[in-house]
Amino acid sequence: MSDDTVKDSSRKEGVGDFIRHTREELSRTTFPSSEDVRNTTVIVIIAVIFFAIYLFLVDHAWTYILEGLTWAVNKIAGI
Question: What is the DSSP letter of 78?
């Protein structure tokens, strides 16, 4: 490897080069339409509500089961 190659690869990029590369990258970027954003937001809200209800029901079911087991163990142990 020559000294020129090492200098080129370790050379810091200038501000102008950075801005140019950033603009090139942004020109290749696509952004979602407002309808896509709206649809995705609705899907996320529905998913959050569904999982909140699901976890609420599972939590209450486990509480009911554990209270029943506690009652049964206490009944067997005579407490």
Answer: T
* pLDDT tens figures, 12-44: 778 999 999 999 999 999 999 999 999 999 999
DSSP string, 9-74: HHPPPPHHHHHHHHHHHHHT-----HHHHHHHHHHHHHHHHHHHHHHHHHHHHHHHHHHHHHHHHH
Q: Return d(Cα 44, Cα 49) in angstroms, integer.
A: 9
In total, the chain counts a number of residues equal to: 79
Cβ count near 33 (within 10 Å):
9
